[in-house]
Design goal:
It comes from Limosilactobacillus pontis. Keywords: Hydrolase, Magnesium, Metal-binding. Pfam families: Inositol_P (PF00459). With 255 residues, the chain is α+β, with helices and mostly antiparallel strands. It has 2 domains: 2-141, Fructose-1,6-Bisphosphatase, subunit A, domain 1 (Fructose-1,6-Bisphosphatase, Chain A, domain 1), CATH 3.30.540; 150-253, 3-Layer(aba) Sandwich (D-Maltodextrin-Binding Protein, domain 2). The protein contains 8 helices and 14 strands. The strands form 3 sheets. Strands 3-4-5-6-7-8-9 form a 7-stranded mixed sheet, with helices on both faces. Helix 1 runs antiparallel to helix 2 (42-58) and helix 6 (185-194) packs parallel to helix 7 (206-218). The longest helix has 21 residues, at 2-22. The termini are far apart. The protein binds adenosine-2'-monophosphate and calcium ion (CA) (3 copies). One calcium ion (CA) is lined by residues 86, 89, 185, 207-208.
């Protein structure tokens, strides 16, 4: 049953991605949400409506937690099949760069991380996997990245955490090989999955974190809260996604 769902979701994501790329010519409207730097476009909304509609066909009876609010009104537990959806991640990059954005979703079954998908939109590369079956870039299985420490790693830290020096993260940045800010959790998660980045630190909403978390844990990478003991799937978390060594190096410096 999960295999059928998986293949249908992959096809659906590629379809939604092709539709998204057709709008790179600027044929969409932009509005602000919480601030001038927090944008939403008609493509975020269209993608979410399309993904949510298709998920209800592919996986009848599921519940959906999605960023723009077209999913279920309240999802406050993980009973049954729960999909967590980010219909366009890196909206600011989509609008300003026409590149470096993605589409992400994850399936939890009775609280168990089960399937996850991160689409690198412009490159049309789909990272997917979970449930003990490994992680793939399209049809190619990814191997666990080398267990590098902080000094030998490029690290991505979201700009607001560095600007406000949250949890001594400027010190972490100085001790890394280099600091990167991609402005898209999807792109940054892919960076850690492929070993391009040794770590990614950010404050993430459920739809920013769940897909990358499922794939990172499947690959044996660390996913840890840096401000308390645990991570909640249904709320915001200050987290690191990293190699085991880089993750520990960061935790030692953010105490
Ligand atoms: P989004 O584009 O789906 O909103 C940018 O550092 C990353 O943080 C992106 O993955 C972006 O996802 C996410 N993000 C979440 N809340 C945000 C906000 N209020 N403003 C800008 N980016 C936000
Ligand atoms: Ca957003
Ligand atoms: Ca996002
Ligand atoms: Ca989004």
């Amino acid at each position: 049953m999960l295999e059928g769902i998986d293949l249908q979701v992959q096809r659906m994501l590629r379809r939604v991605n092709r539709q998204t790329l057709r709008h790179l010519d600027g044929s969409y409207q932009v509005a602000t949400k919480s601030s001038y730097s927090d944008l939403v476009t008609t493509i975020d909304r269209q993608n979410e409506q399309e993904i949510d509609r298709q998920l209800r066909v592919i996986d009848p009876g599921c519940r959906i937690l999605s960023e723009e609010g077209f999913g279920d009104r309240r999802v406050d537990d993980l009973d049954g099949h729960v999909w967590i959806v980010d219909p366009l991640d890196g909206t600011l990059n989509f609008v300003k760069q026409h590149d470096h954005f993605g589409i992400m979703l994850a399936l939890y079954v009775d609280g168990r991380p089960t399937l996850a998908y991160i689409m690198d939109a412009v490159n049309q590369d789909l990272y997917h996997g979970g449930n003990g079956g490994g992680v793939f870039k399209n049809d190619c299985r990814l191997t666990r990245p080398a267990d590098v420490g902080l000094h030998d790693s490029l690290v991505a830290i979201s700009s607001s955490l560095v600007l406000d020096d949250v949890a001594h993260l400027t010190r972490v940045a100085r001790q890394a090989s280099g600091l990167r800010m991609y402005g898209s959790a999807a792109m940054e998660m892919i960076g850690v999955l492929t070993g391009e980045l040794g770590a990614y630190v950010s404050r993430l909403k459920p739809w920013d974190l769940a897909p990358g978390r499922v794939l990172a844990e499947e690959l044996g990478l660390s996913v840890k809260s840096i401000d308390d003991d645990g991570i909640s799937v249904l709320s915001s978390n200050l987290v690191l996604v990293a190699t085991k060594r880089a993750g520990q190096d960061i935790l030692d410096r953010t105490d």
